[in-house]
Amino acid sequence: MVILVLNCGSSSIKYQVIDMEDAASKLLAKGLVERIGLPEGDLTHKPVGKNPFELHRPIPDHTTGIELVMEALTDPEHGVIASLSEVKAVGHRVAHGGEYFPQSCLVNDDTKEKIRSLCQIAPLHNPASLEGIHAIDQVLPGVPQVTVFDTSFHQTIPAVNYMYALPYEYYEKYRVRKYGFHGTSHKYVARAAAELAGLDYDRSKIITCHIGNGASVTAVLNGRSYDTSMGFSPLDGLVMGTRCGQVDASAITFIGEKEGLSYAELDTMMNKKSGVLGLTDLSSDMRDIDRAYDEGNPRAILARDMYYGRIKKFIGQYAAEIGGAALIVFTGGVGENSCEMRETVCTGLEFMGVRFDKGANAGTRGEDKILSAADSKVKVAVVATNEELMIATDTYDLVK
After folding, report:
1. pLDDT tens-digit profile of 105-137?
2. Is the separation of the CB atoms in 17 and 49 below 8 Å?
């Protein structure tokens, strides 16, 4: 069964075409659309057994990006299928399932409506996922679609960690609580890194760091999510590309009063105009921030130091929560590719038992590798996340 997996992020679309049969899987192609909404977008298409293909042009929105993916998949030279009719199912990563979706499910009108109702608390991702679903409705009418939710893995978080110290009535009326995100990625890399490090996944203390345009840290205790940095929405926690992360709520109400901003305008400010973009007025892409950092731009230096520093703070917090850590894992676009970020975050964690191997870290990009010294009490690893394989597996199981 040929399955197309679409993973629509706030400024990117990762995709894979996977031929699934029972427990086996065969990757046919994978690719990445990135820098969506920026002046110059990129499509990198990597068919198995053929030369890769790249396209550089403005990609204003996710719908345009998906159209370009479809063209690449069926192109006579670098495509992997003769026509889109070969695709028998499509799996989508969806950020927020609220309390509606404790598990993956087939897409129907009710599914779409519930995902849409959660857009107000996942304004960067759920709308992008809906665009992907609607685009497939048009391009592949009648083909089954499955949604896999980022929130599912975090349903094991205890109430002491998912509740807020707000009047309890707001939980009862509106289910205001921590949900957590990037769950598919955290689950995959925790298990993969445990195997890489020779640990028993079900009897371990692991801290996973999914670092990209959106970013989160999760404490995984004995194979289950115990706490995570994102909250009611993907806004909370780390400094991100366009999100502010953890902030005193009174600062937001103060700004709103002074500027005469509505709740919707404040929400847009925190989700789309903050983070490293808001700090620098340059870009939401850390590669651009890195270049400005190297040029000595003071606001880029501030933004990157805050971005890195917040990751370290959460690692320390979660080590305290779960009584130490046996393994720290980095993944995501920045986590897998930024040697500087990994070294900076791990420097100063020696008190925890981390002995970071700078030589092993240098030049490591997009591969699974142990980055700590052999005698390090706490192991450090980088693992390339594969949310798409987990999504394809759920899609295959539900459609079959």
Report:
1. 999 999 999 999 998 888 878 998 998 898 889
2. no
